Amino acid sequence: MQSSWQKTGVGDFKYYVGISSLTQVASREDRVCVLNILGGESSEVTPVSHAYSGGNVVFGTAPGKGGAVLETPAGNIPVFNNVRDGLAAGHRFNCGVVYLPPSAARDGVAELIRVNPELRKIFIITEKIAVHDAREIRAMGQQNGIDIFGANGLGVADSWNQVRIGGALGGDKPGDSLRPGSIAIFSNSGGFSTTIAQYLRMAGWGTTTVISSGKDVYIHYAAPEFAFALANDARSKAAVLYCEPGGYYELDAKFTKPVVACVVGRWKSKLTRAVGHAGAMAGGSDDALAKERWFMEKFGVDGIFTPDNPEFSAKGALVTNIAHIPAALTAVMRANATLPDFAPEGTLALKPWFGSDESLELPAELRPPVVPALAPYGDQVALLNTQIGGVVPRQTMKDASGASQMDAKTQVSSLHGTSMLDAATLSFESNVALALLHDAGGENDRKLIAPAIAAYVNLHGRPELAAAQASREAGNAPNAVLAAAAAIVGPKRQQAAREALVFMLERFHAAGLGTEFGASLSNSFDIAQIDTAAAPALTTGSPDARAQALMAAVQARGGRSVFLRWLQSLPGHPTEAAVLAAISATLAWGPLSRKRISLLTAQNFPWWLQLFGTLIGASADAARHEADRFCGIAQPQMLDNASLGEIAFAALLGRTPTENDLFAFQTLVGLLLTNGPGAISAQGAKGAVSADGPEQPERVQLNKALVGFLTHTGYAHGGNGYEGIAYLIEQFKDSGLDDPGAPNHGLDLKALAAKAVDQYSQYKIKKKSAGSLDIAKLPGVNHPVFKDKPVNLDPREVFIAKLREARGDHNVFHDFYRALVQQLFDAGVSRNVYCVNVDAVIAALLLKMLWQPLQSGDIGERDLETAAFTIFLYPRMLGCAAEIDDHLNRGRNMDTRTAATLCKFVA
Question: Is residue 846 within 8 Å of 668, Cβ to Cβ?
Answer without folding.
Answer: yes
